[in-house]
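Agenda item 2: uridine-5'-diphosphate-glucuronic acid complex prediction
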Amino acid sequence: MKITLLGAGGFVGSHLSEHLTRELGHEVLALDVTADKLGHVQGSGFEFRHVDIAQDDHGLEEAISEGDLVIDLVAYANPSLYVETPLEVFDLNFTQNLKVAHLCSRHRRRLIQYSSAEVYGKAQDGTSYIEDETDFVLGPVVKHRWIYAAAKGLLERVLHAQGLEGTIEYTIIRPFNFIGPRIDYLVVPGTMGGPRVFAHFMSALLGDGPLFLVDGGTAHRAFLHIEDANCALATILANPEAARNQAFNVGNPNNDLSVRDLAEKMKQLYEELTGRRSGSELVDVSGEAFYGPGYEDSNRLPPNVEKLGALGWEPLKNIDDTLRETMIYYLEEQAGALLEAPSQAAAV
Ligand code: UGA
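Presented output:
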């Protein structure tokens, strides 16, 4: 099958490009504004096109018409951006993705849309998030971090309505904190805002800088190894009928921990891996100081993954292996790359 992969140049796309071509034998037509993370994906069956979907409607439509199936990863997915540039976040995550949905509808292409765990918003009473039962609960408008969750949630609702009217076939994936090699980018220790939490803590450890705990580090996240995430997509591709017009959580409920525990675990793993004592200390910082006004955290519940489990998928990598393997990549490949934040890659 030929798959049009939008946002292929981001962290998730760089892994999916490899998995879809090498493991699953598909052809991939990859679109993005950057190919920096795609150097390892070579050979027949893979074509990269430099297309900005917000600027090049023709290039986008042509690519969608060429594929048998479209996977859309295009997104701004770093909370610092939701606070700094909320309108750009809305435009990319809703308006541009809606355009993709309309084009899929016009060309009768099935769409696999990556959404976000963030659509659930603030954790309410309950043990886990269940796709077709749990309410979406967002904070007030002045906490503009929630524009991202609102945009992603609205896109899901439009896809659902289009599905009801029979104008599109779609599957929604809600990722819960995928991590692995090439996630985000490293920063100068002490930097606030910028990438997501793993990259911040890795940067701090490499430079003996502070491990900032936003609002006490009490929020929880459940981390999923990117290889388990690839297998989740493979399961969805293998079950087109069962996955038609459905949303699936993709995460690992067994890998749930607080951000404070994450910092302590990464520090301990860093000392084991390097054989040296880390100079990094855990430092409390407020959400507003770290991200700016308008930030509010989503204290996330773990995902319920029974729905995708019923199709045969289960996450296999535990939290220690997930963190260790990702940290080894940064220790081996990136230790010299403590950079100022580059321009943000616009993909999950
Ligand atoms: C982000 C996106 O909003 C989601 O759409 C996406 O699905 C998710 O990443 C993901 O990677 O799957 P979030 O989990 O809030 O959501 O992103 P992080 O920036 O990694 O924050 C995780 C937690 O760590 C938050 O509580 C944050 O306040 C905290 N944090 C972050 C710190 O305590 N210290 C830091 O240095 C950075």
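Discussion summary: The radius of gyration is 19 Å.
Owner for follow-up: CH.
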